[in-house]
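Session log. Operator J.P. requested a structure for one protein chain; no other inputs attached. Running the standard single-chain path with token output.
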Amino acid sequence: MKISPVFILVFILTTVLARQAGAVKPAGFLGLSVGRYDIFHRDDGQSADFRVEYRPDLPLFIKAFKPWAGLELTPDGTLWAGGGLLADIRLTDHVFLTPGFGAGYYNQGQNHLDLGFPLLFRSQLELGYQLDSGERIALSFSHLSHCGLGDDNPGAEIVNLSYLIPLDRLFSGLSL
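Structure written below.
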């Protein structure tokens, strides 16, 4: 089953706007990231990396774990769309360590790095600084891999710089 990135984006926006329309302020973050895809390979797989993530503040079965959903693209058409769990670990008043794990659909696009399977898992470690206004600036390191589901498993490593915007600030002036 092929999942359209447009479907995922519409789902995220619908969820956010539906919460706003119901007079419940959206909580969590919208993350925008730019970075480098396939940082350790010396072939044609290296590329710029762009990512958008939705991180609702909805603690799950264990309060520390929260869901996330994201879309990752490169200029040569590589796409990864998925979601998973993360945990915000407060190190100081402003510094957060955020490990995360997820699964999603992968399409190689025109990139020369074939990751070998359409289902890829993403593990990530992020170090972020939260400003007094609530926004975060973060640096993350991610690894994409199919964990042995296919024959060849080269994996890809990604480094990103992210700007995370609190959703309640983003939609505070919106009146529907």
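Operator note: DSSP finds two helices and nine strands in the chain.
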